[in-house]
Amino acid sequence: MPQQSLRFLRKSGPWLLAAGFFLFCVNMTALREPALLQQAFVIALMVCAFGMLLSAFARPATALVLSGGLFLGLNFLSVMKLRYLDSPLMPADFIYYARSSLLETLGHYPHLWMLSLVVCVVTPLALWAVWRFDRRLLAQTRPSRAWVMRLSGVAVWAFAFWICLLPNGPFAEVHAKNVWEKLSDDAQITNFFVNFSDSDVRLPAMGDDAQAEQDWGSTASGEPAAIPRSADSYPDIVQVLEESTFNPSNFTQCNIPECRVAMFKTDVRTRGTGPMRVHTFGGGTWVSEFATLTGMPQDIFGPGGMYAPYVLAPHVQDSLPRQLQRLGYLTIAIYPTNGAFLNGRNAYKAYGFDQFYDANQLGLEEWEETDKQMFDAAKRIYDKVKKPGQPVFVMILTLAQHGPHDTDPLSSLPAPFNKGVLKGLPTRESLNFNTYLSNLHNSDAAMSGLEHDFLDRAQPTVIVHFGDHQPSFSGLIKTMPRTWPDALSSYKDYLTYYMIKSNFHGASLPTYPMLDIALLPSMVLQAADLPTDPYFSAAISLRTRCNGLYTDCAQPGLVKSYHAWIFNRLHVYE
């Protein structure tokens, strides 16, 4: 009897363990979907995946472990992306981010980097062990017949998998949700597979061309500068994207002097400032870059817009840098990472930059630069390329405030932040916020130095700086109370700031309850008192008529008309 039991365990033990692991994976993935139909959808996909792998390998335990493990891994990646970037996992992530960009990003989240290393080591060993002790099916079948059976099985199960994914197939109901529902509910695995069919770039809804002509025809010839002058007297423009930066004084518990820094305060040089409405949270700097350079928010192009440097940039036909080039500007980008990161170098060329300097070319340690180091590097490049009579546009990206903000203990921060200047906050919130404030004071000092370099001189210059998005504080920031007025409270997670200054007098810029980041380029052109082409003339008109808003404009029909004008008439994107 003991020998029979031992023989049974040898033959069936690996299979039973694998079946248990597969059921565990079903519980951790499919059964965590909120709706019963969504659970059935994921289970059906898991069964189909198991069938394909069983047919391919002819080893049941291996097929169970591998199919279950794939879905478990997919669920883990989805949870991690939602936690750190506040956006769901999408199929295109594996095309655009699973390159050196992914490794570079993981390197700045040490706990995720170590976990990834462990998974990469343990997974092959576990699969080898399962394969080694697994039963081999069709071992007694003639090889040619076995191959026919296995290939036929793969085809049948692959066809079944494909049928499950069809928008009009047996699970049509799980596809029948709008984009916002797919991006905001808890059905992470379901939405990942559903997004296979709708993650492409799509142009926004548009009005008819006749209405567009009526609404925007007056902007078709562009607008001259308020004070006509030659190109050699145009001001230099220095624009700074401040990574993960927001005004902390808008948080209820940030009511101490350390929360009020000079870079958010107005002075005699201030031309415009206020809350800025961005279109990403917790990450996604590249879409804020896209918006502030092209004048279009990425989300008007659908979920695929999140991959702007790859899929949108090559089709851009007009932008702030391109308009400045037409006016005789030399356009320069100062980049804090490797130029290949998220296709940065290629994207900036498409946006209209003449020169692009990444961290390696600047002699800096990528991802580790302080704001001061980035600003000093920008000044060195500016001094090198500046020629009499030619204005320069410099776009600087910073990274010092990049998350996470909780990897080092509070005691490691400089005084007074090492003691926790904010009282009454829970431990985790306190660590994140004090780290942010410590970094912010460094950024503030660096910005003061940048203003000294470019504004304390005779050369006319405009300086623009803005926050690209809020940090997530590992998801904690969303529950922290703010002091925004009721009209802005629904946007609280998507509000940063913008500041425009110049060392010369110019026409006053309008103020808004909040300014959409995509309309910032038109503000920059106005601050510099530069001529605008038909596109930016229309953008200024949209900003005026929508009170600083774009996608949130109180007149959605006007926005559709605007889109018909800029896409069908001006062809700003082709």
Biggest β-sheet: strands ordered side by side in the sheet: 4-3-5-1-6-7-2-8
Question: What share of the residues does DSSP label as strand, in percent?
Answer: 5-15%
3D shape: globular
Please report the distance between the alpha carbons of the first and last residues. Answer: 76 Å
Summarize model confidence as the mean pLDDT: 89
Q: How many β strands by DSSP? A: 8
Rounded to an integer, what's the Rg over CA atoms? 27 Å
Percentage of residues assigned to helices = 40-55%
Derived from helix and strand composition plus strand pairing, the structural class reads alpha/beta
- The low-confidence runs, each spanning 5 or more residues with pLDDT under 50, are none
What's the SSE pattern? HHHHHHHHHHHEEHHHEHEHHEHEHEEHHH
Number of helices: 22
Largest sheet: 8 strands, mixed
